[in-house]
């Protein structure tokens, strides 16, 4: 089979790595890919942006692609699955109507309320004065969310009412996130640890993956600004088998049944971002795709052939293709460019990847590029904020983290920063 994989992050390198292990796969074209996918087994980058739907379709038709796998949310929410299906091309991911669960937080909240899925209260506004009046009437601080896609930056946790009103004006009047903040949710502020539960879905059946946790703050000990994620681990010790059955019964099953009843059966990855509050579990958000960096710990735990699973989802027979998971745990540590998530230098030479892999780590690339993009033997340079995710497996979380850090110790680029407490909540 020839595959087309869309996206360019650490998640996509992890997907490419796992897909390439399938004996069914001959070649994987990655659009646009990164330095990791440029040199990975069976892989070849193609310079088509993940938002150029027409370009991606033309490429898939010209190359007679057997299966397209979509990494990021933007093309899913823009309707790439509908477009490929209409052209008769097999593609893995939810159709646009189902991807609204991530693409519109207003839709998602209304859907949860309609189906009694546990979540915080929220009010939806498109008028600044009305939103500001509502916030002023509250005796607690809420969370503010742009309804549309905002590249992970659309959630604001104000520290005061003044800050909340200012943020509302930025979103609704100044349109700080463009059309994505033309509608804003004012939502109940919840407290508790967070767990990500991802599941394969075929429209009817669900197969839950090992629950994961990510570390969002920049600094060791959970200080500093929020980032796209500085590390992750799975399985989460917070998620007991009972908890996972509760998630399946009260969250995932109602989504799958509700979407089917809406005429938009959910096929793809359903990602539930959950908070364990003192009053029980609550859904913070749904994503319609694999998580980043969760994928870099979940896929190394998967023993089954990923291509079989994705095809089973597309053909509605996930019940016959249950995924098999490895015993033990996985941890991934992100190495970022100094200055991230603010401005940072690019073009720094990266060394030591082979030595890290010799230690038994998998090194997934996010912000890397070939020094000369036309030649695979020219060495790697940094090209983004999050540069690498170094994954280790072990018999438990602590062993997995030890393995990841042992590999990371061999990798070098100027200005590299990382947390020293990934999957080690009590160590600094
Ligand atoms: P989301 O994109 O909705 O997952 O939000 C990003 C992050 O904001 C979450 O991972 C939480 O840390 C935080 N967050 C979102 N919603 C809430 C909420 N209702 N209460 C407290 N924190 C939240
Ligand atoms: N790790 C958060 C996300 O993928 O949205």
Q: Work out the oligomeric state of the chains in this entry.
A: single chain
The CATH homology group name of the largest domain: ATP-grasp fold, B domain
Tell me, what's the shape? globular
The share of residues in helices is 25-40%
Number of strands: 21
User: Quick one: CATH class of the largest domain?
Assistant: Alpha Beta
Summarize model confidence as the mean pLDDT: 94
What does the radius of gyration come to?
Answer: 21 Å
Provide the β-strand percentage band.
25-35%
CATH topology of the largest domain: D-amino Acid Aminotransferase, Chain A, domain 1
Q: Number of folding domains?
A: 4
Bound compounds, each kind once, are: adenosine monophosphate, glycine
* N/C terminus separation: 46 Å
Low-confidence stretches: none
The major beta sheet can be summarized as: 6 strands, antiparallel
Number of helices: 14
Please state the second-level CATH architecture of the largest domain.
Answer: 2-Layer Sandwich
Structural class: alpha+beta
